[in-house]
Write a structure and sequence with these properties.
Layout lengths: L2 E7 L4 H19 L7 E7 L5 E2 L2 E2 H8 L1
Parallel strand pairs: 1-2
Antiparallel strand pairs: 3-4
Length: 66
């Protein structure tokens, strides 16, 4: 049973996340030959203040992009 964990910053809609999980499921079905019922996907979301890239939190990066 393949289990996939996706870590990302908060901010996507439930619809976007469900679409992503469906696409990942279908990729595993196609490429690994597993049944969709065997695929488990979990999303771990972190607040923008709890993620950092390039020495800046995602909040700082968002503010700098404006």
């Amino acid at each position: 049973m393949p289990e996939i964990t996706v870590s990302m910053a908060v901010g996507r809609t439930d619809e976007q996340k469900a679409g992503m999980m469906r696409d990942i499921t279908q990729a595993l079905v196609k490429n690994l030959g597993v049944d969709a019922e065997a695929v488990v996907i979990q999303i771990n979301e972190a607040p923008l203040s709890h993620k950092m890239k390039g020495g800046k939190t995602f909040i700082e990066r968002k503010a700098a992009a404006k």
